[in-house]
Amino acid sequence: MRVRGHGGTRLNVVDFGGEGPGILLLHGLTGRAANWTATARWLTRHGRVVGYDARGHGHSDKPDGPYDRAAYVGDAIAVIEGLDLGPALVVGHSMGGLTAWQLAGARPDLVRGVVIADMNPVTPPDLVDRWRRWLADWPVPFPTLADVRDYFGAARRTEGESFVEVMAGGPDGWRPLARPAHVLASLAHWADRDHRRELGPVRCPALVVAGAESDQPVDRQREMAALLPDGRFALVPDAGHVLHYDNPAGWRAAVEPFVAELIPARRDPVPAG
After folding, report:
1. Residue 37 near residue 17 (C-beta atoms within 8 A)
2. Domain span at residue 22?
3. pLDDT at 269
4. Parallel, antiparallel, or unpaired: how do β-strands 2-4 and 10-17 relate?
5. Is the pLDDT of residue 273 over 80?
6. Number of domains the chain contains
7. Is residue 45 scored above 60 in pLDDT?
8. Which of 22, 61, 62, 217 is most enclosed, with most CB atoms within 10 A?
9. Boundaries of each AB hydrolase-1 domain copy (predicted)?
10. Is the separation of the CB atoms in 240 and 246 below 8 Å?
């Protein structure tokens, strides 16, 4: 499925199924909607679950630009409005979490609640340089998917699994679907910034979920929950940054009660007779 986003960019949309209120899933930098598959399975008990590949990512268009925050938020607005999902529960990981709270602040009519997964609201000044060096070190093309798992899962195996989802195979091996130039252009619009002032306008219920072993500061995320007008905080043990891969049971235990407050789960049908 395709939806025209900000400026006409075609976005690849995945409808994971379910019925009822809309639930929109926003992946992180270099990711794609498929990263949410396991989470989407249990979220379909609560509503219609939709994800999409962000501009420059996955199978969405990869224009030269823009990759600023207005474009990312505009894409989310276009998906919610185009698929009649609003007011939606918006679940975002990392960069997707940033988009989620900016969307909620800009268009409260479209958002019933947000889940912000492992995103630091105060981004470091050297973030773009660190990513530029890291991207340059990737041994692209990867000969096999096993090499992808080994490279990205050196510290935490599950992170390797998340990167398998964002590779495309070709005659010479496996390459990332997101281009480094577009990744860096996206980063440039939220690195070296203090985003805490954006939290006040987020009036809907908000859950901040941090990985206990993440490289994103847990104390900043606790502070973010406190700054949100209707915020709360949950910590997922045995999880790094990609917490929904690292500890899926802990992630679900942290998130589903919040989801159920906003969108109660449908009852299983009673068998006839």
Report:
1. no
2. 2-122+194-262
3. 40
4. antiparallel
5. no
6. 1
7. yes
8. 22
9. 23-250
10. yes
Per-residue pLDDT at 270: 34
Q: What is the DSSP string of 241-258?
A: SSHHHH-HHHHHHHHHHH
Kindly write down the DSSP assignment for every residue of the chain, as one continuous string: -EEE-GGG-EEEEEEEE--SSEEEEE--TT--GGGGHHHHHHHTTTSEEEEEPPTTSTTS---S---SHHHHHHHHHHHHHHTT-PSEEEEEETHHHHHHHHHHHH-GGGEEEEEEES--SB--TTHHHHHHHHHHHS-SSBSSHHHHHHHHTSS-HHHHHHHHTTEEEETTEEEESS-HHHHHHHHTTTSS-B-GGGSTT--S-EEEEEETT-SS-HHHHHHHHHHSTTEEEEEETT--SSHHHH-HHHHHHHHHHHHHHHSPPPPPPPPP-
Q: Tell whether 148 is covered by a domain.
A: no
Cβ atoms 121, 224 nearer than 8 A: yes
Q: How many residues does the chain have?
A: 273
Residue 57 lies in a domain: yes
Joined tokens for residue 134:
């890291």
CATH code for position 220:
3.40.50.1820
Query: What type of residue is 246?
Result: D
Q: What is the pLDDT of residues 176-220, one digit of tens each?
A: 999 999 999 999 999 999 999 999 999 999 999 999 999 999 999
ω into 66 cis (within 30 of 0): yes
Residue 173 belongs to some domain of the structure: no
The amino acid present at 175, given as its one-letter code, is R
